[in-house]
Write a structure and sequence with these properties.
Oligomer: heterodimer
Order of helices and strands of chain B: EEEEEEEEEEE
CATH architecture of chain B: Sandwich
Structural class of chain A: mainly beta
Strand content of chain A: over 45%
Structural class of chain B: mainly beta
Number of strands of chain A: 11
CATH topology of chain A: Immunoglobulin-like
Number of strands of chain B: 11
Strand content of chain B: over 45%
Largest sheet of chain B: 7 strands, mixed
Distance between the termini of chain A: 41 Å
Helix content of chain B: under 10%
Number of domains of chain B: 1
Number of domains of chain A: 1
Largest interface: A-B, 25 and 26 residues
Number of helices of chain A: 0
Shape of chain A: globular
CATH architecture of chain A: Sandwich
CATH superfamily of chain A: Immunoglobulins
Order of helices and strands of chain A: EEEEEEEEEEE
Helix content of chain A: under 10%
Shape of chain B: globular
CATH class of chain A: Mainly Beta
CATH topology of chain B: Immunoglobulin-like
Distance between the termini of chain B: 37 Å
Chain lengths: 111, 113
């Protein structure tokens, strides 16, 4: 089955620093999503980026499909960015659509 | 628009006990997913439905776990005889067929002693 590897497993930054999170996957994916999971456990979709570069706010994701990798860049980190960032890949769309998640990167931003 | 709701939020069991988790997806979402998330792991898909039909339950431990969505709306996930290894957060998510984004509920945190 599909496998998703995320690195680093954890990251500690001071407020204002930038973060770069990596995601590598084992097979071609037509869908790739980045999620944020708060310390309380709620999971929220940040970006859907199966290929190319996408920006939203302070987040930039770059996916190179043929190299099976994606990155998530967080600029000017804030303490409220602390939590776990999960990368997930999916196969074909429509009804036969399921996601395989990585283990996540735990980000801690200190004041 | 109300989000995905789940209940209970927490459950503590002894091994061998049964437990049911309930999920109410976003109105109009035809696809519903159940995930298991052990501590320090990513969510792992257990089963998913389109309307009332099971699309994939290959990762559902069928000897003790069952899931239903009888009217294609709410869903129940049941563990018949819980084991300590079932300790995890159980997440429900839903989506509409013409979009790829899955919307997650707050999860049910299960502790099996």
């Amino acid at each position: 089955g599909q496998q998703v590897q995320q690195s680093p497993s954890s990251l500690v930054l001071q407020e204002g620093e930038n973060a770069e999170l990596q995601c590598n996957f084992s097979s071609t994916a037509t869908q790739l999503q980045w999620f944020y999971q708060s310390p309380g456990g709620s999971l929220v979709s940040l970006l859907s980026n199966p290929s190319g570069t996408k920006h939203t706010g302070r987040l930039t994701s770059t996916t190179v499909t043929k190299e099976r990798r994606s990155s998530l860049h967080i600029s000017s980190s804030q303490t409220t960015d602390s939590g776990t960032y999960l990368c997930a890949i999916g196969g074909s769309g429509g009804s036969n659509y399921k996601l395989t998640f990585g283990k996540g990167t735990l980000l801690t931003v200190t004041p | 628009e109300a989000g995905v709701t789940q209940s209970p939020r927490y459950a503590v069991l002894q091994e061998g006990q049964a437990v049911s988790f309930w999920c109410d997806p976003i109105s109009g979402h035809d696809t519903l997913y159940w995930y298991q998330q052990p501590r320090d792991q990513g969510p792992q898909l257990l089963v998913y439905f389109r309307d009332e039909a099971v699309i994939d339950n290959s990762q559902l431990p069928s000897d003790r776990f069952s899931a239903v969505r009888p009217k294609g709306t709410n869903s129940t996930l049941k563990i018949q005889s819980a084991k300590q290894g079932d300790t995890a957060t159980y997440l429900c998510a839903s989506r509409t067929g013409d979009q790829d984004t899955q919307y997650f509920g707050p999860g049910t945190r299960l502790l099996v002693l």
